[in-house]
């Protein structure tokens, strides 16, 4: 029986090649999109699960309110890990990470700047699953100046993974010994470093500083331990260890500290939640967001649903063509159940054919998708045997979902009526098909609006005034090798034609996260008059080079000897202090919290607020201090021949720092990199939205063709009576346009709600203007008109003699 069903199904598919092609192509695109998104979602959900202890590993995060600021931190105080292990039996082990910048390594005669460097405790291998190819996990990171490197890195520097015992010259000064080689870290990890330096190399790692949060700290809990029960005890831990430090610095106890509205809390974040649920200050790397998983999953669901709706629409629209077949089968004794099975078999067969095409489309689209998503996703049915059952289940569900209504609808026809040709059919009488078209275009309009809003927000980020001019600023990274020649380099570089100005600093708005420091407005270090802010050492050319403006006061100047104790604060800081006339006011900066080293600084200027954190956050308080720091050199250029100018700057640098790498970027590129995830996800969402609209158009094209076919005789009569091509085209198109209008009425409020919710994540965001909805509605109408116009014009141009010859 099944063989007969398949044979009949193939015959019907071949008989209606056009409609079959629309169904198969639509389903194939839908299945391919679903498969791509499913692979993306599986990849996102698999982060950090390669660790054998993944379900017991937690990061110690912070929630701090102080100095008018609220911080959600991915870092903890220096001694947090060791104290948790010492004081709490639930803690099996801990490890700390500290990102302290890159290393300059010697490879032969070449200097190589490596940035994927992290400092780690010797307990690294007790916490994370990082298999060693060479070396002892117990001793690999115990001694200072020890390095554990990945296999790829070992081959890069030594042409072998057996590199233990070798040395690398670091910063042209120290020899670091290779003590371990690990397998390359999986891509599905929230950290991907090539170099692990022993934590004992850092002097600050041995401090007992409870008021600075600098270390990403992870703990492994013992089997059966409840993280919530451990978290409950953290308040007592803060009182015990942070309390004395607060007392030492501000001469108040924790009760008074909390009474003023300040607090410090610690909590545990599961390792497997970091990638999708953590966007805190001090992350090791930018994470993704569960929002994208939800958004893309919803898009996949709706795309597949639109493809299924196409199938249902076209199948029920063509019901009159299959009616006589159903009538004859029923007269010959076929049961309703047998007819349902036949039509469902036909539907599942179409899904199977679509799956084959979808797999081919997925293989074709996967490289482009990986490039857009910055992923390394692979589709290998042999390597992932669990994927095939999922695909087969997807085909079965799709076939049943798409074919269920047509199957039951067609099998319900009464044989006498259909054989006599009394079955009522037509576009206008099918409220269900109209409803399904409205559903399709409602989703399409929502996706069009979402696409426009996403594009507007991405463009807003690119064009929003950040408070500094990032265009045509060349950034030289790590100019520390210039040493005592740094000042001379800056003086010489501004003499090059095409260079307007230059500044040397370790602090640029595009550099990412840095620690905050308390700056007090009272010499007694009264916490009520403290503002927690970032403090940057800059030179007197910083503001001019980056195009920053002062609202009041003056810039730093070497002519004023007292400027060594001067400070410039931003508008956000001035507002938090409550200053109406800040110029000349004294501020008290706690440079070294441990030794209570306080600097008295006088305010000489207020700089306009500029963004130095994500647009998801408001501008925070900031202080600029006059100081020497050659960490980076930012050079403002004005030249039409940028390659030639860069070559001149490189030549000058090579003369003053021979053999040192000349690493540079442009500040606008660095700025864009801060929002690379949003840009990637936005482009992917726009692409998938376009595919959804394409599938909806395929269905509309098929329905228009069928509507024109059903009204062939009516069109012939109207033409005989004098109707023009435009009259007939309008007549056939207006029914579809009415449905688009209804779709717009449904889609507009839903789209506004979805996109308004999405934009709330950004402190600085675009507006959802009224014209967005008008544009989306007009676009949907034009898409509908262009989609049906081919069929309607074709029908209108048909010779009426052909359509009426049998009447």
TrEMBL record:
Stretches assigned to the ABC3 transporter permease C-terminal domain: 298-413, 686-800
An individual GO BP term: cell division
Occurrences of domain MacB-like periplasmic core (ranges): 20-235
Topology in membrane: Multi-pass membrane protein
Cellular localization per UniProt: Cell membrane
Keyword Cell division: yes
Transmembrane segments: 21-42, 292-314, 343-366, 386-410, 431-455, 681-708, 736-756, 768-790
One cellular component term from this protein's GO annotations in UniProt: plasma membrane
Keywords of this entry: Cell cycle, Cell division, Cell membrane, Membrane, Transmembrane, Transmembrane helix
Keyword Cell membrane part of the UniProt annotation: yes
Pfam families: FtsX, MacB_PCD
Gene Ontology MF, one: transmembrane transporter activity
PANTHER family: ABC-TYPE MACROLIDE FAMILY EXPORT SYSTEM PERMEASE COMPONENT 2, MEMBRANE COMPONENT OF TRANSPORTER-RELATED
Identification of the protein by name: Cell division protein FtsX
